[in-house]
Every structure is written in structure tokens, then in C-alpha cells.
What does this fold into?
Amino acid sequence: MGARRGEDVEVVAAPGRLPDEPAVRERARAIPEAAVARLAVYLRVLSGLAEQGVTSIASEELSAAAGVNSAKLRKDLSYIGSYGTRGVGYEVEVLVDQIERILGLTRKHSVCVVGIGNLGHALANYGGFPGRGFPVSALFDVDEDLIGVPVGGILVSHVDDIVRVCSEREISIGVIATPPPAAQAVCDRLVSGGVQCILNFAPVVLQVPDHVEVRKVDLAVEMQILSFHVARRADEAANADESGMVVPG
Amino acid sequence: MGARRGEDVEVVAAPGRLPDEPAVRERARAIPEAAVARLAVYLRVLSGLAEQGVTSIASEELSAAAGVNSAKLRKDLSYIGSYGTRGVGYEVEVLVDQIERILGLTRKHSVCVVGIGNLGHALANYGGFPGRGFPVSALFDVDEDLIGVPVGGILVSHVDDIVRVCSEREISIGVIATPPPAAQAVCDRLVSGGVQCILNFAPVVLQVPDHVEVRKVDLAVEMQILSFHVARRADEAANADESGMVVPG
DNA sequence: CCAACTTTGTGCACGCGTTCACAAGCGCTA
DNA sequence: TAGCGCTTGTGAACGCGTGCACAAAGTTGG
Ligand SMILES: NC(=O)c1ccc[n+]([C@@H]2O[C@H](COP(=O)([O-])OP(=O)(O)OC[C@H]3O[C@@H](n4cnc5c(N)ncnc54)[C@H](O)[C@@H]3O)[C@@H](O)[C@H]2O)c1
Ligand SMILES: NC(=O)c1ccc[n+]([C@@H]2O[C@H](COP(=O)([O-])OP(=O)(O)OC[C@H]3O[C@@H](n4cnc5c(N)ncnc54)[C@H](O)[C@@H]3O)[C@@H](O)[C@H]2O)c1
It folds into this structure.
């Protein structure tokens, strides 16, 4: 619980907010989703710096390493509190701890992967998850040949057991890597099993209750966004050409 | 819209933006990135509908299938033109064609994958890319044991040949699935080989010249965003509990 | 202890994206 | 042809995120 440093955390921020909201809840909720995503990036950069023995860093340098501008970095960090030293910078270790706290990484989040095909295998074998506090604790598939087979050190269970196994192992994050037609049914089962968050690789729009958070990783969409930019550039080039523009450089 | 702003504005908002641009280019650029991403989703839903023999659909129904509200859908579609019929809806085939045109999918975009490990194998074998106009035309790795081996029907080439092979096969999109330390070097080579867009799976911030578009797929970040939401929910529950809130129902 | 310098933290303004609400437009029916 | 009902397309308002610019706050050197 949070009251170890009972400092007078005045409601300095957020003028115009409702006066009767708990400060902690408000602060957590007030962090824009985009900022949360960037905090995760800062965390990785900071972890790398810590391994290299860097103990302190200024916003200018850290922001460059994270690929954002320094004002945005400072604003993002301000959402989680004031942990910098003016005239100096930030202590790497302090930032790591605080970002981990805000992202809820102090608690372990067990993960399951459903659909142990090409992608599912890669995910199950990936060392980046357990290394960052996301132990893969269950795997599921329908394929009888896969059931009971160890993948990445975990035995594959049958999809019919999702509800039971997820409850037993307190899975909080479910990763869906099944073919698209199976995704919604799998999703429903995960929700029944008490899974609170879903990371979906299948190109389908999942329907879930309000209390479940879904994020999708959609490679086709990513490719098409890139394609759009290629097309836009080609258009621009054609237009520039047409209008007799001189090639710069 | 303001050609000549006052001199008191000393900050140029967008570097390199010209005041008078051709309408076509303007229209393309005017589409918000977020809208482009959704258009790709609409496209998939529409393709599915077309296969089911649906020929016409109203914004209300299409938006539900795509998981957005109908106003947003109509606004998004309005970016690409007016192809609906008031009182009726949209012709599925027309929308598919128009979205494909805007996303630049009328042209084929050759793709290469670098780093044929767990993830690279999955990507190389994935049927969803060629099926959507993104033929995988080259694979690269450093591992001598992999060079010359066919994966998903393509022979793996050596990373040292990236520049030559990418030029020869006119690769426009490069997918990076190497370990993090190798990503930047691979990226530089791809750029030298004329690749315009990069999809990066390695958890590193890539530095690229302005004319290259990068998108990253960062699973650790996705997981941490989910973790943040779990933590936020837990906080809320704790707060609600603490403040003596009555459980509804 | 003060002055000069460095860097944080944030108020503020701007611009983009989302949402609302409704006029315009189309088909259908009488 | 006129009237009715339905759905699109979009102007306008709103809200959120981003970037700027500077005061506040700390450090360092004299
Ligand atoms: N492979 C990729 O690189 C890639 C890229 C982007 C998206 N995806 C998406 O990820 C998903 C998986 O792709 P993949 O290449 O691994 O496919 P895959 O066919 O190799 O694997 C699918 C696995 O899911 C299992 N499965 C099928 N129905 C199931 C069910 N009802 N419950 C549980 N498991 C079930 C199958 O037995 C198989 O093991 C697909 O939706 C695909 O569109 C894959
Ligand atoms: N596997 C996953 O599910 C997963 C998930 C998220 C992110 N990632 C990221 O994707 C990347 C690849 O992951 P993986 O699990 O496939 O790793 P992997 O170790 O299985 O494969 C990496 C491959 O890259 C090759 N390689 C190494 N150095 C190279 C270089 N300089 N040029 C070209 N190829 C090189 C290796 O020979 C190997 O084949 C990593 O950066 C990882 O962090 C993987």
C-alpha cells in the first residue's frame, strides 16, 4: 500500500478536476494511453542504461534514445510524479522503479498462449516475456498431436480446459494465435476463465465485455499503413515531377 | 486557410510544408493515420462480406462489424470520397476498390524478412501476406546453416547481400526479426537497398532517414499496457472498496 | 553566500481526431 | 410528381495530446 512516504501530496495538478476524487485513482487514470506506451519504451531504454552502469541521465539524452522529443518525455514522466533533480537529471534506478510501479510490473502477470502453430510456437519460446515479468504459464491448442507436448518448457493443454486451467493458474493475460474463425470462441472461453486482458494476433474484431481489455496486433493492417505511405510518396513525387519541381539536394 | 501568418509566430509548425499544394496530394495527406489504420480494418470486413455474397451495407452495420461507431466510419470513408447512396448504404465492391486504391494496394509491394529465427519462420510461412498483395520475395539471415535453405518457398540469402538483393527484387517493405543488437545495422542495410518502409519486431528504437517509414510491433510494450490496465482496475477496486462502496446487484 | 548555469516541471496554446447532430440526397410508394 | 422515411456526408463543437517556453529549483564555482 502506498502510505510509506506520507508526504503532503497536494492537489497541485489538475485544476478543474472534481475535488472529491481520490488523488491516486485520478492520477493513474489521467495518464494518456499514448503516454503509457511511451513509458514502456523509456523503461526498456532505462533498463539498458542501468545494465551499462549509467546511474543518472538528463531528459534530453533519454528522449533521444527513446526517439521522442524531450518536452514530451518530461511531460510523460510528470504523469507519474516528480522524481528528477533540476539542474541534473533523473536517477536511472528511481525511474525504473517508478515506471514499473505505475505499469503494475511489481506484480507478476501470468500469460497463456492459445493456438500453438507457427506464431504460437514463436511466442511460447520467446524469452522476452518471462524476462520482463510475464511468465508464460499455459498453452492451449485443439490439435490432439500437440496436447501434452512441451513447448518452451510448458505442456500444451486442450482448449476445452481453458476455463479451468486459467482459473487454477491465475492467468491474467491471454494471447490468441489461432486461425481467425476460432478467435472469438477462444476469446469467450478466456473471459470465462477470468482472463482480464487479451492480446489478439488473429485478424478479427473481438467482442468482449467492458471489464476486459483487448489489444490487437494486426500485421496486415501494419503492412497496409506502410503501403499507404509508399503510395502517398509516389503521388507526391509524381505531382512534384509534373509541376516541374526541382529535385532538392 | 492562412497563407501568411503574423510575424509574431516565430515557430514554423510543420517543417517542409508548402502553403499551396495540389488537391490530390492534399487529400491523401489529409487522411489521419488513425483513419488509415481503420480503413484497413474496414477493408478486411468488407472483403469478408463480399465473399459471403453481401453486395450492399449501411454504415451502422459495417461499423458494428468493425468495432467502431457509425459516425467515425462515415467520417473515415468521407476522406476517400463519396461512394455511398443516401437512404441505402454503400456498395461493398465499390468500397473495397476505393479503399484498396487509397491504401495503394493496386500495386504489389514486395516484402523481405530479415532474421529467420522463431518469429522469422512464422512470418515467412504466413499466408496472410501474399494473400493480401504483399509477396514475400526475399529472406535474410547470418546463420550459415540457414543460407540457401528454403523457408516458405523462398531461399534464405545472406545478410551481406541485402543491398543487392533488395535492389534486384525491388523490395519496398523490410521486416526486421533479428535479435535487438543486430536491428540497427540491418535497418541501415535495408535503407541502402532502397527499402522505403520497415516493420520492426526487435525491441529497439531505429534511427532512419526522413524518407523511410518505420512501424514497430513491440510485444513487450503491448503486454505492459495491458498490465497497466490491470493495475489501474485493481486500484479502482481497492479504492471503491476502501470508500465503503456497495457492490451493485 | 551569491551569481551563473543547467535542467526539470508545467501552464498554455495549438492542432488533430472524435463525436454530435442535422441538412442534403436518394429510393420507394401512392 | 409529391411526400415520406431512411442513410449519407459534413460543419461545428469538443476533448485530448503535443510542443513551446519559461519559472522554479537545483548545482557548481568563486
Ligand atoms: N504466422 C504469422 O506470422 C502471423 C502473422 C500475423 C498474423 N497471424 C495470425 O495468427 C494466427 C495464427 O497464425 P499461425 O501462422 O500460427 O497459424 P497456424 O495455422 O500455424 O497455427 C494455428 C494453430 O491454432 C490451432 N487451432 C486451430 N483452431 C483452434 C482452436 N479452436 N482453439 C485452439 N487452437 C486452435 C491449430 O491447431 C494451430 O496449431 C492466425 O490468425 C494468423 O492470421 C500469424
Ligand atoms: N519470438 C517471438 O515471439 C518474439 C516476440 C516479440 C519480439 N520478438 C523479437 O523478434 C526478434 C526475433 O525473435 P526470435 O524469437 O525469432 O529470435 P531468434 O533468436 O529465434 O531468431 C533470430 C534470428 O536472427 C538471426 N540473426 C542474428 N543476427 C543477425 C543479423 N545480424 N542479421 C540477420 N539475421 C541475424 C539469427 O541467426 C536467428 O535466425 C527479436 O528481436 C525478438 O526480441 C520475438
Notes: Residues 1-27 of chain A have pLDDT under 50 and may be disordered. Strands of chain A lie at 56-57, 84-85, 89-91, 110-114, 136-141, 150-151, 154-158, 171-176, 197-200, 213-216. Chain A has three domains: 21-102, 112-217, 218-249. Chain A has nine helices and ten strands.
